[in-house]
Amino acid sequence: MVVRALHDEGVKYIYGYPGGALLHVYDALFRQEDVQHILVRHEQAATHMADAYARATGKAGVALVTSGPGATNAVTGIATAYMDSIPMVVITGQVMSHLIGEDAFQETDMMGISRPIVKHSFSVSRAEDIPAIIKKAFHIAQSGRPGPVVVDIPKDMTSPTERYEYEYPKTVKLRSYSPVTRGHSGQIKKATDLLLAAKRPVLYTGGGVIMGNASAELIQLARMLNYPVTNTLMGLGGFPGTDRQFIGMLGMHGSYEANMAMHHSDLILAVGARFDDRVTNGLDKFCPTAKIIHIDIDPASISKTVKADIPIVGPAQAVLAEMIELVGASKKQPDAAAIKTWWDQIDEWRTRHGGRYRTDDSDKMKPQQVIEMLSKVTNGDAYVCSDVGQHQMFAAQYYKFNKPNRWINSGGLGTMGFGLPAAMGVQMNFPDADVACVTGEGSIQMNIQELSTCKQYDLPVKIINLNNQSLGMVRQWQDMNYESRHSHSYMKSLPDFVKLAEAYGHVGMKVEKYSDLEAAMREAFAMKDRLVFMDIYVDQFEHVYPMQVPRGSMRDMWLTKTERT
Amino acid sequence: MRRIISVLLENEPGALSRVVGLFSQRNYNIESLTVAPTDDATLSRLTVTTVGDDRVIEQITKHLNKLIDVVKVVDLTEGEHIERELMMIKLKASGAARAEIKRTADIFRGQIIDVTPNTYTVQLIGASDKLDAFISALGTATIMEVVRSGVSGIARGEKTLSP
Ligand SMILES: Cc1ncc(C[n+]2csc(CCOP(=O)(O)OP(=O)(O)O)c2C)c(N)n1
Ligand SMILES: [Mg+2]
Question: Where are the beta strands (DSSP E) in A238-344?
Fold first, then answer.
């Protein structure tokens, strides 16, 4: 019934790992061809694959893991999806109903463990409920503010000897759950008036624009108004990275011009963003002159950290569409002179400190150069799945995303080990696309075993390993706050990644000189059907800048190791 | 400020733990909590008393509303309401104290619901501060045990909390 329900839900791939509690389900999988199961090498990877599929398509991904250790291995992946509001359905096996609570073999209370990191969870207590529960799980995961849903199924609930009437429900009705489908018109009208009266506006948009499929509306509204747009780490690609109106990412490692513009703005239109501490910096000093309009599907996100002057609860797409209509019909238009002055100021910031890093005469590669090359070689069209660390920030800063859903990273939880399984999840579903995994020698080793899964399913991911021979992000903080005492941020025993890749049956390349980079990268991306592991040696001592000064305002930033605002 | 929040909840396994978990996870405080099924057996009514400023209370109600099992949430303290709590208190009652306790209980409209030669058990119903006042009024009497139900609340007038 589980497999049939997944098929009726339109699921093509599920990612998982078998075990005792799931043997009935795995047997059912074996005896059909509609739902394809992808066998990972560690359950964490199954959840990240499902998660990345969801990030790339907006539809819930599905992971299947057994009870006990299978379920606990999936916890990191569930938390990762939860923090970034990613729709996912995780089916966990459970010991037989009559054994629950007895510390049976491979029993863990998955409902309890996962409770704070799921949108909702179900425990099956009657087998005939399985189709309805699975239907509800998908509905809840994908609607409103999306999130992961766990379905815990005791082994006896899937017993093939019991037979039940099967019917997959067409619709779901939950009296306690009805996500909003549009914003409050009065609020939208008020917001639009405020928007049109602004002299120093900024559109600040996040993952809600990506998952809410509102990129087209954002672009249209921004163009009508000619206002600057900044994206959060999760929102990159929501507005084209090469567009003149794009002023870069904001926040801790945001661009100089984006953080300056935010600080000096008189109006912030926040769309599907949550004023996270990595964005706002010191809350008491946050954007002192700005009025705030906050559009979000989740009322609990509004006025959580920063109070909104005009809160609008609703899906980004519907609310922005309504604003576009109002702006179009309004007699009042933006104050062109003020906006011109504002752009002059922003452009001045942009030329003063925008997108800058230093190269020296040596052939030592800067990590930023590698990302710029990646952007060039793939025309800004690749799916870039990142791990966590300095390389992630460089990728966010220097890859010019022209489309939504192509930048795939663990923003909220910051899960090292996310990158490779994420790239696999995307490649599986977009076999012809260029999929890059931008990673570091630290992160890649957290799920390196998945190179084996890549071999089994022929996933030609391109691994861009920015090898700085250290846990760079940790080291940067140690440089800045602990007088360069590099406590355990250094890896003295790196493997030979080229040989390692080859051992798994893939292609390995080592690049040490910038002059070799472009040719090597083009060669790698030309190998359409091979996984290529590019081990790229970059400057060990590079830091990510700008970097906001802790507890300062948005405009308080380190710009280089010695220069600050 | 002290608030009384009433919640209608699906009467399902795990639903209560989600509510309690939310409070601990987000560092909200629970002063008291009561829960029992309503006339509709598929629904439970839960009352939480908590303290927090407006911003915190707003977040609490929003997050409660987000829980899938939660059908309705209302902050009773926003309007006219009635709150009641039940207390049973076991006291040493011998000699002169015996009459004194009886008198105090009468003043507070408490009932003596169990008697032994040396003890009284008093039952008292009222708003929490009335129960507190009774305890202070007992003065030197020796308290052996106190059980309080936690607060239940209901709105005054015709307002109801229904699905
Ligand atoms: C699972 C996990 N453990 C620890 C951390 C803390 N952490 C954040 S960045 C980082 C270093 C990452 O090193 P590497 O992958 O080599 O990337 P680099 O910063 O060098 O580019 C660490 C340890 C984390 N984010 N995730
Ligand atoms: Mg590194």
Answer: 246-249, 267-271, 291-296, 310-313
Q: How far apart are CA A412 and CA A150, in angstroms?
A: 20
Interface probe, candidates A133, A172, A176, chain B, greatest B C-beta count within 10 A: A176
* Statement: residue B96 has pLDDT above 90: no
CA atoms of A415 and A480, how far apart (whole Å): 23
Q: DSSP states of A122-150 as a string?
A: EE--SGGGHHHHHHHHHHHHHSSS--EEE
Q: By mean pLDDT, which of A159-168, A429-438, B97-106 is the weakest? A: A159-168
Model ipTM value = 0.88
If you measure from the C-alpha of residue A391 to the centroid of ligand 1, how many angstroms do you get, rounded to a whole number? 9
Q: Would you say residue A157 has pLDDT above 90? A: yes
Residues of chain A neighbouring B65 (CB-CB closer than 8 A): 299-300
A111 torsion bin: left (phi>0), alpha (psi -120 to 50), beta (else)? alpha
Can you say how many angstroms the Cα of residue A145 is from the centroid of all Cα atoms in its chain?
A: 15
Please state which architecture CATH assigns to domain B2-79.
2-Layer Sandwich (3.30)
CATH number of B82-152: 3.30.70.1150
In chain B, CATH 3.30.70.260 sits at 2-79
Does the structure show a pLDDT above 80 at A359?
no
Give CA separation, A489 vs A67, A257, A486, A494, B147, in Å: 35, 31, 6, 13, 55
Residue with the two structure tokens 């010019």: A400
Report the amino acid identity of residue A65. V
Q: What is the pLDDT of residue A69?
A: 98
A159: which residues sit within 8 A by CB, 6+ positions away?
A: A24, A127
Question: CATH 3.30.70.1150 spans which residues of chain B?
Answer: 82-152
Lookup result for tokens 């030309």: A526
Chain B contact present for A526, CB below 8 A:
no
Pull the structure tokens for residue B14: 């795990």
Task: Tell me if chain B has a CB within 8 Å of the CB of A120.
Answer: yes
Three-state secondary structure of B146-160: EEECCCEEEECCCCC
Give me the pLDDT at residue A355, please: 64
Decide if A177 and B25 are in contact by the 8 Å CB cutoff: no
What's the pLDDT at A122? 97
Express each pLDDT in A198-215 by its tens digit. 999 999 999 999 999 999
* Per-residue pLDDT, A307: 95
8 Å CB contact of B70 and A120? no
Closest approach atom of ligand 1 to CA A392:
21
Distance A475 CA to ligand 2 centre (A): 9
pLDDT confidence band for B141 (50 / 70 / 90): confident
Chain B within 8 Å of A112 (Cβ-Cβ)? yes
Contact flag A115-B21 (C-beta cutoff 8 Å): yes
Which domains does chain A show, CATH number per domain? 2-158 (3.40.50.970), 185-352 (3.40.50.1220), 367-544 (3.40.50.970)
Q: Which of B21, B63, B68 sits opposite A177 (nearest CB)?
A: B68
